[in-house]
Design brief:
- The protein is α/β, with parallel strands linked by helices.
- The protein has one domain: Alpha-Beta Barrel (TIM Barrel).
- Helix content is about 35%, strand content about 25%.
- The protein contains eight helices and ten strands.
- Helix 1 links the parallel strand 2 and strand 3.
- The protein is globular.
- The relative contact order is 0.18.
- It comes from Rhodocytophaga aerolata.
- InterPro entries: Aldolase_TIM, RibuloseP-bd_barrel.
- This is Phosphoribosylanthranilate isomerase.
Length: about 210
């Protein structure tokens, strides 16, 4: 199975999500490593889940990261990527050897100029910028700014993605991928994959 773009599915907390995503060709699985977050996963559960999936990149998600903290974290969670919103020194953080994703919050006042001013300096150290928002939809203004930015920055879009819009978003911008979210199991081994499945099936390509 292959998908037409990079897909990151975050908030992975159970084997059902992980195995389903791996089978559908998802490239990256995100695990929340912040104990204060409701989607936090303990090292033992992380190990148990990742041992069952192959050919997929793991992403450790933390709100902020320093190089010293990251080295300790990687001993418990040997992830392929670290995703964080802030770092005291992106260059030192990247120097530990693990590729980085930078999570960026988007609001109604978001502009390409604002993004470039704040993030151009760290671009050499970041594999992807993952854009998230509290808004469910993408306004025409924000879409215009994303289209401009996606020509210069490696962007993964993590909001405003629906069955009716995902193909148009990928066709009319230079986005490198999309970010979706897993969910908790209703009970062990039982999941409702409808929303996730509908989008992933639209992105399937024949190999």
């Amino acid at each position: 199975m292959a998908l037409q773009t990079v897909v990151l599915v975050s908030n992975i907390t159970n084997l059902s999500d992980a195995r389903y995503c791996a089978g559908m060709g998802v490239e990256m699985l995100g695990f929340t490593l912040d104990p204060q977050d409701s989607s936090y996963i303990e090292p033992g559960s992380f190990k148990a889940i990742t041992e069952w999936v192959a050919g997929i990149h793991t992403v450790g998600v933390v709100p902020q990261a320093a190089d010293q903290d990251a080295e300790t974290l990687l001993q418990a969670y040997p992830v392929d990527y670290i995703m964080t919103e802030t770092s005291s020194d992106w260059q030192k953080l990247r120097a530990i050897g693990t590729p980085l994703l930078c999570q960026v919050w988007v609001d109604g006042d978001f502009t390409a100029q604002w993004f470039t001013y704040h993030y151009q300096a760290i671009q050499p150290y970041v594999a992807y910028f993952v854009l998230v928002s509290k808004q469910d939809a993408i306004s025409a203004k924000v879409l215009e700014q994303l289209t401009i930015l996606s020509a210069e920055f490696s962007l993964i879009l993590g909001f405003g993605i629906y069955e009716q819009t995902v193909q148009s978003l990928l066709k009319n911008t230079f986005l490198k991928g999309i970010a979706l979210k897993g969910s908790h199991e209703i009970r062990p081994g039982f999941k409702d994959f409808d929303d996730l499945a509908n989008i992933l099936e639209l992105l399937e390509v024949e190999e």
